[in-house]
């Protein structure tokens, strides 16, 4: 069983010829399904990168939105303009106006509260939250362990990883995405907690912040992943 992860929208560049922008989007190919996790902040930038990576929007089966912030939902309209067959998953907290806009376009959708199995070996949720925005994440069950993809991790990346690990009772092989440590002095504590939880590899990006990313690189060493637009990572 092989899983391919490709970063199609991020603040940083990994491969020349692609466009960067504030936001995040990860394309997942797993068990014959193609899932887009978040859609970045700009539809045209997202479509440009998909085309450069030779990915047709029509080939995407599912879109998952981590939370209702523009830099994660901004490219959705561009995708559904090209592909009316996708199913959109998002946290139950998204407003009724958002759901109505999908209904008007004839797009299938499914709000998430608990953990939902959206395809073989791929789960989304549960919806988590605290003082900040509520958010869902995506978990892939691989032969090497769980691969967890986050949008911004507003509820706290360590808390989110802990909840998934305890719920599924499996090793966490990878955590990748925005960890929302840009304005936080908690990075070292978060890194220690993720290591205590047995996280194998870490790929912090987007809103994690350069200082925190540098600390992750220092502590995870060869298990640190430098994330940027165009990064491809295969989990065999």
Topology at a glance:
Layout: E1 3-9, E2 25-30, E3 33-37, H1 43-52, E4 62-65, H2 70-73, H3 76-82, E5 87-91, H4 96-105, E6 108-112, E7 116-119, E8 122-124, E9 138-142, E10 145-150, H5 157-168, E11 172-178, H6 187-196, E12 201-205, H7 210-220, E13 232-235
Parallel strand pairs: 3-4, 4-5, 5-6, 10-11, 11-12
Antiparallel strand pairs: 1-2, 1-13, 2-3, 7-8, 8-9, 9-10
Helix pairs in contact: 1-3, 5-6
Describe the protein in words.
With 236 residues, the chain is of the alpha/beta class. It has one domain (3-227): 4-Layer Sandwich (Metallo-beta-lactamase, Chain A), CATH 3.60.15.10. The protein contains 7 helices and 13 strands. It starts with a strand and ends with a strand. The relative contact order is 0.17.
- Overall average pLDDT: 96
Separation of termini?
6 Å
- Please bin the fraction of helical residues: 25-40%
Strands of the biggest beta sheet: in what spatial order? 6-5-4-3-2-1-13
Q: How many E strands?
A: 13
Number of helices: 7
Instruction: Tell me the number of structural domains.
Output: 1
Please report the first level of CATH classification, the CATH class. Alpha Beta
The main sheet comes to: 7 strands, mixed
Structure summarized in a few sentences:
The protein is α/β, with parallel strands linked by helices and 236 residues long.
Features:
236 residues, alpha/beta, Metallo-beta-lactamase, Chain A, seven-stranded mixed sheet, 7 helices
């Amino acid at each position: 069983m092989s899983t391919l992860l490709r970063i199609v929208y991020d603040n940083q560049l990994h491969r020349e010829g692609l466009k960067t922008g504030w936001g995040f989007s990860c394309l997942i190919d797993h068990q014959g399904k193609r899932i887009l996790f978040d859609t970045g902040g700009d539809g045209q930038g997202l479509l440009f990168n998909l085309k450069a990576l030779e990915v047709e929007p029509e080939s995407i089966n599912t879109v998952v939105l981590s939370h209702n912030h523009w830099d994660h939902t901004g490219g959705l309209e561009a995708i559904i303009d090209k592909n009316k067959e996708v199913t959109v998953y998002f946290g139950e907290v998204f407003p009724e106006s958002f759901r109505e806009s999908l209904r008007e376009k004839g797009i299938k959708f499914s709000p998430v509260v608990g953990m939902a199995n959206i395809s073989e070996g791929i789960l989304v949720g549960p919806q988590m939250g605290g003082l900040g925005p509520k958010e869902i994440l995506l978990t892939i069950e691989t032969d090497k362990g769980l691969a967890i993809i986050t949008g911004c991790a507003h509820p706290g990346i360590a808390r989110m990883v802990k909840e998934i690990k305890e719920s599924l009772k499996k090793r966490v092989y990878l955590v990748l995405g925005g960890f929302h440590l840009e304005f936080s002095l908690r990075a070292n504590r978060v890194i220690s907690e993720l290591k205590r939880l047995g996280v194998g590899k870490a790929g912090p990006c987007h809103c994690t912040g350069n200082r925190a990313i540098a600390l992750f690189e220092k502590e995870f060493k060869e298990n640190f992943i430098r994330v940027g637009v165009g990064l491809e990572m295969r989990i065999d």
